[in-house]
Amino acid sequence: MSGRTGFLTAGTFCLDRNITVDSWPEEDMVATARAVEPAGGGSACNFAIDMRKLDPTVPVETQTLVGADADGDFLVSVAEAHGIDTSGFARTAEAHTQTTDAYHASDTGRRTHILFEGTARVMTPEHFDFSTTGARFLHLGLPGIHQKMDGPWEGDRNGWVTVLKRARSAGLETNLELVSTSVDHLRETILPCLPHLTTLVCNDFEIGALASAETVAGGVTNIDGVEMAARKALGAGAMEFVAVHFTAGAVLVTRDGETVFTPSVRVPPEDHRGANGAGDAFAAGFFYGRHKGWSHPRCLRMGHATSAASLRAPGTYEAVDTAEAVLALADRWGWRS
């Protein structure tokens, strides 16, 4: 189909319970919760809402599986409130809606997620249909936490491969959102998907896992190691480029040898409320630039600006603003050297 535009987000759309605690407790100890806020969560939800907040004129639709329960109703209402096409929501009574308790520790800024799998266990490739969509980009996630999707399907190594192959056959550009599970699980699940991706945007730990390389040591990113790992991942797949984000910046490498490094935003410590959803925000900002036809450096800056803005709230998308506003905020805060 010619004239494709906009985004189809697919996969994880879950209920997040954003819980702010004073500090994360040791085992057998008690933590005090200061706030508990329900919200949409998961890569399909966060990316879609971030994109609509950046620019309400961008068409966004989603395909996912949620329960035939009150939490599923809540997620449909969240999507509708942000102008997201919800015709691709499948409902089931077989399992409860997937839920994540997302804890944010005020003293350290660190986050801890506890997942209740629910509908994630019963999602299959048959819950996705690309025959009528006019979207240009498919943003799909999250491999590694979906039992049936992670297993073999119709002769493919896993259900994610099946979905990506169908999307490519339908004419969509494909990107895969990862989740930082174990190194072995990441390699087992993601490497078979790489030949069916147009692009890959991930973080420093994830690219190191895929390339069997040490890219993070003592909490510090080895930028040269990230570049080498990204090139190794390119060689294992069909991507036009690989973009890797981390605290200090982002590296993008292309198949024709281009390398781009862009520093991140200097977020004031007093404005840092939580990193939940920051990776989704980076991806949304980056792909907003790609949707607009921007250069790679400009797309990376847009990713950083959106991610930085998202840090102002413990939830995943509450603090994301228009594209103009997040870029102005980034310029006001300043960029790392």
- CATH architecture label: 3-Layer(aba) Sandwich
Quick one: how many beta strands?
15
Structural class: alpha/beta
Count of alpha/pi helices: 10
Range of strand content = 25-35%
Order of strands in the sheet with most strands: 5-4-1-8-9
Reported by name, the CATH topology is UDP-N-acetylmuramoyl-L-alanine:D-glutamate ligase
Q: List unreliable stretches of 5+ residues.
A: none
Main beta-sheet strand count, sense and barrel state: 5 strands, parallel
**CATH class category label:** Alpha Beta
The separation of the N and C termini measures: 43 Å
The best one-word shape is globular
Summarize the helix and strand pattern as letters.
EEEHEHEEEEHHEHEHEEHEEEHHH
Rounded to an integer in angstroms, the radius of gyration calculated over CA atoms is: 19 Å
Helical residue percent?
25-40%
* CATH superfamily caption: Ribokinase
Question: What's the rounded overall pLDDT mean?
Answer: 95
How many structural domains does the protein architecture include? Answer: 1
Give an overview in words.
The protein is of the alpha/beta class. It has one domain (7-12, 42-88, 125-333): 3-Layer(aba) Sandwich (UDP-N-acetylmuramoyl-L-alanine:D-glutamate ligase). Helix content is 32%, strand content 26%. It has helices at 43-54, 70-81, 147-150, 159-169, 183-190, 204-211, 223-235, 278-292, 296-310, 323-333; strands at 7-11, 14-21, 33-41, 60-67, 85-92, 99-105, 111-116, 137-141, 173-176, 199-203, 216-217, 220-221, 241-246, 249-254, 259-263. The strands form 4 sheets. Strands 5-4-1-8-9 form a 5-stranded parallel beta sheet, sandwiched between helices. A 4-stranded mixed beta sheet has the order 3-2-6-7. Strand 13 (241-246) and strand 14 form a beta hairpin. Helix 1 (43-54) crosses helix 8, helix 5 (183-190) packs across helix 6 (204-211) and helix 8 packs antiparallel against helix 9. The model has no long low-confidence stretch (mean pLDDT 95).
